[in-house]
Amino acid sequence: MRNGVVDDDQVTRWAQEAGQGDRQAATAFIRALQAQVWRFLSHLVGPGEADDLTQETFLRAFRNLPGFAGRSSARTWVFTIARRVAVDHVRTAVARPRSAMVPDWQAAAEAAGAITGGADEGVTLQQLIAGLTRERREAFVATQVLGLSYAEAADLCQCPVGTIRSRVARAREDLVAAWQADTGPSHGRRTG
Question: Where is the RNA polymerase sigma factor 70 region 4 type domain (predicted)?
Fold first, then answer.
């Protein structure tokens, strides 16, 4: 365990044991990944949908656990499933008309753990991340928020490692530019 995160080898062992019917391993597998999957989905589709989509992610994972071969870590495998769940959710949401809702950004930022300096900064950070393109947001959240390696994020996003590095670098540039625009002269800079 490092920084409160169970190592990939242990998570993968639990996944394989759960796939063979071990209920304790299944419970440990969920506990090890649930919060990270929720945070990932929260950044991709929003905190309001993250609970349901996290549940859907684990339902899909458990249906497929007996066939999990362990060619990648179980963590990467589950994040790949979560990404597909998010894509499916967005496709469905786009296909169906919805009423205009004003999100409660403070509650969303608090739920995602984004507030560090105060409510305004947390809300702004959440909004800035939400403003990134889907590809940059996925790469940024996977590597910078969840702490996945670039190789794991590349597996998750199904692209080369260099593409992940590029997306993260561009996401950082976008976030800095958007932050500067948001806290520029008209808003005044905060000094602590």
Answer: 125-175
Amino acid (one-letter) located at 119: A
φ, ψ for residue 136, nearest 5 deg: -70, -40
Assess contact for 150 and 143: CB atoms under 8 A.
yes
CA 98 to chain CA centroid, Å, is: 24
- Which residue is it, tokens 């590597």? 143
Structure confidence at residue 54 (pLDDT)? 94
Question: Residues 29, 9: contact at Cβ < 8 Å?
Answer: no
Cα distance from N-terminal residue to C-terminal residue, the chain: 34
| Nearest alpha carbon to residue 56 among 43, 68, 67, 41 | 41
Domains and CATH numbers, the chain: 1-100 (1.10.1740.10), 103-184 (1.10.10.10)
3-state secondary structure of 87: helix
C-alpha torsion angle, residues 147, 140, 82, 84 (rounded to 10): -150
pLDDT for the residue 124? 65
Q: Give the per-residue pLDDT at 184.
A: 61
In whole angstroms, how far apart are CA 76 and each of 25, 83, 149, 161?
18, 10, 10, 14
Ranges of the chain with pLDDT below 70: 1-5, 93-124, 182-192
For the chain, state the CA radius of gyration.
18
What is the DSSP-derived secondary structure letter of residue 71? S
